[in-house]
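Extended Data, panel c. Modelled sequence:
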Amino acid sequence: MDVKQKTTALSNGAQRQAEIRAAADRKNLLRILEAFGRNLGLSLYALFALFPLVWMVICTFKSDAEMYNTVFRFHPTLKNYEAVLLGTDYLKAFFQNLIVSGGAVLLTIAAGVPAAYALARYDFKKKEDIAFQILSFKFAPEIMVILPVFLIFQKMGLYDTYFGLIWVYQLITMPLLIWVVRGYFEDISVEVEQAAQLDGYSWFDVFFKNLLPLIKPGLVASGLLAFIFAWNSFTFPLVLSGFKIQTITITSLRYIASDTVHYGQVAVAATVAVLPEIIACLFIQKHLVRGLSFGAVKG
């Protein structure tokens, strides 16, 4: 009887171990299938998201004759790059756009960070109304303010100048930066500033040595987005710039003729135009992810 009980117990134990192993195998298989499905989905989404950029690059090597009757098999040519980069003043417009967009972001940071600090730290009448009014500038259509701004620029001599475009670009760049950086300042405890001041630091030392490093992710993220908005602006440079200063968004219109569109040249202009944004995103990717993840605006 004891032998039968031992045999039964051993068989039951072996059966339970087999069931446990089978369950573990099923769990591992499900985990592998889940990881495969997730990676497959992400790969398909990446292909879907990047395909327009890949197609645009492919079009830069096509001639106008092969633009419509070929897909992937065609005779590559560099004539589009020669026509845009060497045959026109596109590179001049590229560097002018870089000056205007970079200057606009620098001015936004210089004026927007103190404004965000004031909205986060000080209590005064109509504070939230003022903050919302600043944010509303971002939502207002540019065409609504372009005519009065054009007349003001004509009177003040700011038409077709670097300073004029940098100034008016603040309507595009500053609201976002103020609201994002304000959320970072609000997340920093006031005791941090008070403790530093008790140690003998002046307010400027506390601001530049203690607070600015803490808001760096949000500042980098909002600064990059501000640069992208300024870089892609079309309405303001279309009306407020003339022959001396032209951005790439305006210069790209030259490749659209009245009777035809040179799609290869347009693709070259667009491909070169997105390079600064892609390079900037790659260099500050770490700060960009942290800034967009933890710099949420408080309601």
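The chain has two domains: 2-60, 79-294. This feature is highlighted in the accompanying rendering.
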